[in-house]
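FIELD: query
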Amino acid sequence: MDAERRPPVLETEEEAFARDPRAKLVITTTAGLEAEARREIGSALPGVEARPLLFKGNLLALSECSEDEAAARLKEADTTVVARAVPVQARVRLTGDSAGFAAVAAAAAGVGRIGPGETFLVRASRRGRHEWRARDLERAVAASLARRTGGVGEYERETDWVVSVQVYQEIAFVGVNRPANLVRKTLRRRRKYAPGERPLNRAQWKLQEALEAFSIELPAGCEALDLGSAPGGWALVLAERGCRVTAVDPAELDAAAAGHPNVTHLRVRAEQIAARGEWRGRFDILTCDMNTDPAEAARTLCALAPMLKPGAPAVMTVKYMTRRRRRHEMEAEEALSAEFEGIRMKRMPHNARETTAVMRRKGGEESAPK
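FIELD: result
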């Protein structure tokens, strides 16, 4: 085949990452304040490109400065929402099990900074769902890296190098740095909104859209159980439609929801109310917007299903904890099917990295939501 007709060789994301000559830093910030963090990073590192990573509160910064200069500038910068900055030199794709540990160790060795007899410490930060713990990765990488480089892994004393492994589900960023190049800053803003000032608009619209899209009718004198209620958007929607709402969440509710006469706030986790026998068959609707793994949230709904009247509707947000969205939906549906039927899922305008599931409790004669 002629060279002109030969198909191009596609470059992997890992190869493109390694080829990019810019300094790369994984930066953590307060979730919801990524835009402000970009402004602060841009002030410290002019011309920087800051990309969002899979999980909120995490950015990848690419700077024309050297790693040393970028770390020094961020340390000196007057910031309010930048928490940590870790220079990274490699990007590795992981498998679901521990088989990817060797690739992480190979990437760290490939950076070429750890020499024979030099000490190093492996520290992993894991985000997502895995069959292994961060500690498992740290130990495996340290042992493999010692064999590959002749370096000495340490755990308790200061070392020549720190090997940082920042895991975002199936992607790991690997950095080998002098301890002085790791940036830790004081967060002067830990939340996006002051207590009582957080807007409820998007949360409110999500439930309003679900009630309308699936033609869910709330009976007169409706009793509603709202799980993961804080800051209270869903509880407020239900209360303003005449429901008596039991809002379950250990966190505070927004003042608008907490002060509504139709809302009773239980500051406990949803799992803690599963044994309340006096609530059996009490509620006309069950809602859940918990920010947790969809399968786990689904199992919590099933545990509380006896509190719902047979045939009554339930609404749940399926949060996308990874990019495998369809898998999250399937896992949630499988878990929900133990206690619910007529399960339907739909992405609506105010869903963000999530979808909405609507279903009814088994045992009733009511038709499924349309």
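FIELD: remark
The two ends are 57 Å apart (CA to CA).
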